[in-house]
Model the fold of this input.
Amino acid sequence: MTGGQEHVLTIKRYTREFATIWDCFVEESRNGTFLHKRGYMDYHADRFDDYSLMCYANDKLVAILPGHIKENSYCSHNGLTYGGLILPNDTRAEITLEIFNAILEYLRTNTVVTRFIYKPTPHIYHSYPCEEDLYALFRNGATLAERKISSVIPLEMPLPISGRRKLTTATKERLRIVEDGDFAPFWEMLNERLQDKYGATPVHSIDEIELLKSRFPENIKLFTTIDKEDNLLGGVVLFVTDNVVHMQYTATSDEGRRISALDHLYDYLINKRYAEGRYFDFGTSVENGGHILNNGLIAYKERLGGRAIVYDTYIIDIKREGE
Done:
């Protein structure tokens, strides 16, 4: 949509009858991924009461916003790694500012929320530059609430893996990499490792990840490393978008760590399986919204060649008349 064109903006709350329109818009956008499609967003609808918004200009859909309400906050979106406005190629800066203003007015009028918590989609996921929303955040007085550092490899020119013991030819011959194997054994290993190290569990249950895999078979991938006796040594779950291969989960056995089986797997993924892609994202290495850096974890990812991009969260205070 060109700047200066007269238009009337209308904000509508998403309902299921718009699912097909929503998904088509995501596919044609410049910053949407499969995480923004309804088949992904709605798997945890029991945990996040959906309050997604759709913005129309002269009856044309020009932006969508994944969102939900939690207490006094409108969030976009706590159930997603990244959210924010999803925009097509022809929605430009001027109209994006107006969209933000229209959304804030809609929230003032139709909800009692006092904060707008906004997680933009990082630039590595964009199919075409799409940071008009960051400018709109600035113009609306947003404050940076969280900054999580992630480690990313540009796959066109990856740095070599360094600082780790290389696998011998004999060890490599013992190993086999399996794509899209059985999630259950890996999930058992993942649960055990997270419990032992952090007292935590995966964000997704085994039933949820298998459901999502069935809905997005080309976007959710499990790669495991096994030995000649079919013992599971380690594996990774990847969320694959057009531009980014994102490491969602990783786990390894004691024997897998001893022989650096995951290094062997990463070398295959980065230099062979996804060598024609754009970015490999190892994920974040922080706690407490970015205030604590896990030095050991990020050092390992950096030895694999990863360098920093950030996942940000912003807050806009929603003021009403008289406040």
Remarks:
- The mean pLDDT is 93.
- The chain has ten helices and 15 strands.
- The longest strand covers residues 143-154.
